[in-house]
Structure formats: C-alpha cells, structure tokens
Amino acid sequence: MSKTLFDKVWDTHVVKKIEGGPDVLFIDRHLIHEVTSPVAFLGLKTRGIKVLYPERTFATADHNTPTINQHLPVADPLSAKQLKALETNSNEYGISYWGLGHQKNGIVHVVGPEYGITQPGATIVCGDSHTSTHGAFGAIAFGIGTSEVEMVLSTQCIMQPKAKSMRINVTGKLGFGVTPKDVALFIISKLTTSGATGYFVEYAGEVFENMSMEGRMTVCNLSIEMGARGGMIAPDKTTFEYVKGREFTPKGEAWDKAMAYWLTLKTDADATFDKELTFDGSTIEPMITYGTNPGMGMGISNHIPDAEDVEGGVTTYEKSLKYMGFSEGDSIVGKPVDFVFVGSCTNGRIEDFRAFASLVKGRKKAANVTAWLVPGSHIVEAQIKEEGLLDIFIEAGFTLRQPGCSACLAMNDDKIPAGKYAVSTSNRNFEGRQGPGARTMLASPLVAAAAAVTGVVTDPRTLIHELELV
Ligand SMILES: CC(C)[C@H](C(=O)O)[C@@H](O)C(=O)O
Ligand code: SF4
C-alpha cells in the first residue's frame, strides 16, 4: 500500500496498536526545558520511577533565562527556581543538561538540530508546542503536555491517535524579499489559526525543495499556529548535508545504515492525503500581521481588511483591532514601531541574522526604536561574530543579546511595555504575549530590519536592491 512520509515514520515507531484507541509510539528523542518538566519529574519522584532512557533525553534552559549578564545569578526568584529544578532533576536522572552559561545552551528548538539530536525519520517530542520545528528534517515531531512528559520520561513511549494527513504544496519561485517566514504567515492567513486542526501537514513543492534547513525549520515551526499537530518536509540532499557530522548524528557504518533508511522517507507517488492544498509561491509578498492571532496577516502593501471581509466573528475582529490601535482600511506601512525583536525558535537562526544584516548594513537604527537581537543559541551567536555581522550591527547602532526565548513570550526580563508596538520575528501575537498590553506585529527578519532603520512599518523591498541580499 502506498504511504505518505508521515505514515512511513509513524508505522516504524508503533510499539502497540490499541483496538479503537490511540497507538503506542516509541519516541527516539525527548527534549525538555524548565517550564513543562518540573511537575513531570515530581510525578516520577512520587511514584518512585526512573527515567527509562536518560541518553535519549536532553535538557536546555531557555524560557526563563535572561538575555544579558547571563554570568550573574538569575534575579527573578520564580525563574531562578524553575531553572534550578531543571538542573537538579537532570543531574539526578542522568540527563544531559545545557543550562544557562553552558556552551550548548540555547532555545530547545534551535539547539536540537544544531547538535544533530534532530534527525530524519525520528520521533521527537517536547513539552512545547513549537516542537513541530523538527519536522523540517522529515521527523515526526510534536508538542506534548506535562503528564505526557512524565509518560515519555518513564516509558519512552506515548499514546497518540494518528492525525489526519494534509499536504500543502507551494509551487514556483518566491519573489525578491520574500522569506520562509512570509510563506508560513501567508499559509496561516489562508487557512486561519484552526485550518489545520487535527492534521499533520507535509509541505511539498518547489519552494520547499529550494529552501534551506533554517527556512524549513521556520515553516515547520509555525505549523502549530494553524492548528496542525505538526509539519514535516521530506529529507533530501539539503537535509543530509546539514545533519552530517553533528555531535549526535550517526558516524561511519551507522551513518550509511541511517542514510539507507532516510532515503526511503518520501511520500509515495500514488499516496493520497485527507486534504491537499496548492499555492503559487510567486504571489506571496513580504507578510505582516495586524491583529492578535497569527492568522491575521497580510501582504505588507495591503490595507487592514474590513470586518465584513474576514471570516470569524465581527466582535472578535473589532476587539483585536482595538487592542492593536488599528482601524479597518488603514495602511500598515507607515505605522509606528517602538520595538524590534529578532529571535525565537522561529527566526533566531543564522540566516535570519544574515537577512537582518543585509538590510541594516550601511544604515542606522531609527532613534525611536529599541531593538533586541537575540540569537537562538551560542552557535548562532558565535557565527554572527565570525561572519562579521556583529560589526555591521554595531556600526548601525544595534547590540547583540545572549541566547534565549526572550521577548517571544516574555517569561523573562525582556518584556515589551504596555501599548508599545513591536515588529517581531517570533510566532505569536496574542494579547499580552510579549508583555502585558504589548502590541505585536509578526514579520520576517527583513521586515523587522526595515522597521528598525526607518522607525515605522516599511516594505523592505523599497529599501534594498535584490543584489544586496546575502
Ligand atoms: C512554555 C511553553 C509550554 C510554550 C509552548 O508550548 O509553546 C512556549 O514555548 C510558547 O511558545 O508559548
Ligand atoms: S522561542 Fe518562543 S515559541 Fe520558541 S520555545 Fe521559546 S517561547 Fe516557545
């Protein structure tokens, strides 16, 4: 029988099928962070259970960590407590722990791939919704709840009903200034935030085939924002080149064996999906959100839609615009910007900083803008320095912070003040997401750069020539 990529990875991991119930799935890699693991460990302790495969579990501190002065003790008592708990639990159960100040520390969805923990054909879970990021490698990766974290720690398995399948094809070539973030925001704007609920999505087509691993991670990361359980892309040459030689990837004969499996990981030509959608990539513009969910996005040259033209309740829509301080029919270009945030597991990778640098190079940060450039990991931070991007940033009036989730969700010191506008490369623009009362416009690193140097929402294509992009 023909199979999709998802079927192939799923089927090889089923330990047990429960008649009329969920499948019991073996989990290859389990990532944990300080927010969703403490209660799971407490459960283990109470029941006197061990972690079954500590070598398959990896811990990093990211959500509650400060992004300056990381050498100093964490000032916020609650954050300090969470971080300490992760350290103590990891040490007690023999789990690799990459805490604050550790060379390998960074956002869980950035460091996993960097160290080769993320591999094609694997099953990967984490008590975190953006675990979908790892699907970029052709892995089945999804977020789980705290009680499931406990289940995986103790059994290395999880009970899961098999999701429905959806394939999203994006054909053709992307226009100048259009990045993977724009592709994802475009898809979410078409599907809405619940359009893929109950589905596991495979992204296919020329646009994804030509995309870098960083770009694919950005797209898969955002799958969750349209309600999908996860997203994945068939592994190819780009994937194998990225994965090869990383610390936790197979070496020698084991590599050849792994490759033999990985090469089978594509959807069979005659396999069918429960739902299939196709978009023309050449029609996508640089995107920006104007509302309070990631589906409220549009091409940057557009005007904010009228309530009657959008799906969903008019009241919710109006409430959303009111929160943002925007009106129907407004042009988004020219809207004031107070903060620019480049970072997160969506856009905190080297390519994102290259894109930002290519636009701010030779320009100056706008005086009214506070910019937080936050690398997703120490590897990204080091690369920014090595490639001379930091020099470009400093010359243009920017500084670089230290790795962490930062203003993506403001569980740390990096909070956008109430009422202020932020152009943010992160993934969620919910009310208060970046700080109580903060107003978020989600966009790509290029759009963020254009805002950072002009002080208002600006179409990056008006500032930069095609050839200037790295
Ligand atoms: C804290 C964590 C549970 C949460 C998630 O699951 O996504 C966070 O990472 C987020 O981005 O909102
Ligand atoms: S960077 Fe943001 S989305 Fe990613 S794990 Fe951290 S808080 Fe969640």
TrEMBL record:
<comment type="pathway">
    <text>Amino-acid biosynthesis; L-leucine biosynthesis; L-leucine from 3-methyl-2-oxobutanoate: step 2/4.</text>
</comment>
<comment type="similarity">
    <text>Belongs to the aconitase/IPM isomerase family. LeuC type 1 subfamily.</text>
</comment>
<dbReference type="GO" id="GO:0009098">
    <property type="term" value="P:L-leucine biosynthetic process"/>
</dbReference>
<dbReference type="Pfam" id="PF00330">
    <property type="entry name" value="Aconitase"/>
</dbReference>
<feature type="binding site">
    <location>
        <position position="345"/>
    </location>
    <ligand>
        <name>[4Fe-4S] cluster</name>
    </ligand>
</feature>
<dbReference type="GO" id="GO:0051539">
    <property type="term" value="F:4 iron, 4 sulfur cluster binding"/>
</dbReference>
<keyword id="KW-0408">Iron</keyword>
<dbReference type="InterPro" id="IPR036008">
    <property type="entry name" value="Aconitase_4Fe-4S_dom"/>
</dbReference>
<feature type="binding site">
    <location>
        <position position="405"/>
    </location>
    <ligand>
        <name>[4Fe-4S] cluster</name>
    </ligand>
</feature>
<dbReference type="InterPro" id="IPR018136">
    <property type="entry name" value="Aconitase_4Fe-4S_BS"/>
</dbReference>
<keyword id="KW-0004">4Fe-4S</keyword>
<keyword id="KW-0411">Iron-sulfur</keyword>
<feature type="domain" description="Aconitase/3-isopropylmalate dehydratase large subunit alpha/beta/alpha">
    <location>
        <begin position="7"/>
        <end position="455"/>
    </location>
</feature>
<dbReference type="InterPro" id="IPR050067">
    <property type="entry name" value="IPM_dehydratase_rel_enz"/>
</dbReference>
<dbReference type="InterPro" id="IPR033941">
    <property type="entry name" value="IPMI_cat"/>
</dbReference>
<dbReference type="InterPro" id="IPR001030">
    <property type="entry name" value="Acoase/IPM_deHydtase_lsu_aba"/>
</dbReference>
<dbReference type="GO" id="GO:0046872">
    <property type="term" value="F:metal ion binding"/>
</dbReference>
<keyword id="KW-0479">Metal-binding</keyword>
<dbReference type="InterPro" id="IPR015931">
    <property type="entry name" value="Acnase/IPM_dHydase_lsu_aba_1/3"/>
</dbReference>
<protein>
    <recommendedName>
        <fullName>3-isopropylmalate dehydratase large subunit</fullName>
        <ecNumber>4.2.1.33</ecNumber>
    </recommendedName>
</protein>
<comment type="function">
    <text>Catalyzes the isomerization between 2-isopropylmalate and 3-isopropylmalate, via the formation of 2-isopropylmaleate.</text>
</comment>
<keyword id="KW-0028">Amino-acid biosynthesis</keyword>
<keyword id="KW-0100">Branched-chain amino acid biosynthesis</keyword>
<keyword id="KW-0432">Leucine biosynthesis</keyword>
<dbReference type="InterPro" id="IPR004430">
    <property type="entry name" value="3-IsopropMal_deHydase_lsu"/>
</dbReference>
<comment type="subunit">
    <text>Heterodimer of LeuC and LeuD.</text>
</comment>
<dbReference type="GO" id="GO:0003861">
    <property type="term" value="F:3-isopropylmalate dehydratase activity"/>
</dbReference>
<feature type="binding site">
    <location>
        <position position="408"/>
    </location>
    <ligand>
        <name>[4Fe-4S] cluster</name>
    </ligand>
</feature>
<keyword id="KW-0456">Lyase</keyword>
